[in-house]
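Re: the 60-residue chain
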Amino acid sequence: MKNLVRPRNGAVIAGVCAALANRFGWSVLLIRVLAVLSVLIPGPQVIIYVILWVLIPKEL
């Protein structure tokens, strides 16, 4: 497994989905689809995304 960092290339909004996909070795498309689907149900998903955006460091 790799470190949890937001990549410079391949980021759509902030690179959070790409960071999670790279960290766990999953498909970036799968993570992005799950993120979009999760926004359709009520809950704090957008707030969690913003928190991860702030907490996950950008790749050097």
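The chain has a mean pLDDT of 93.
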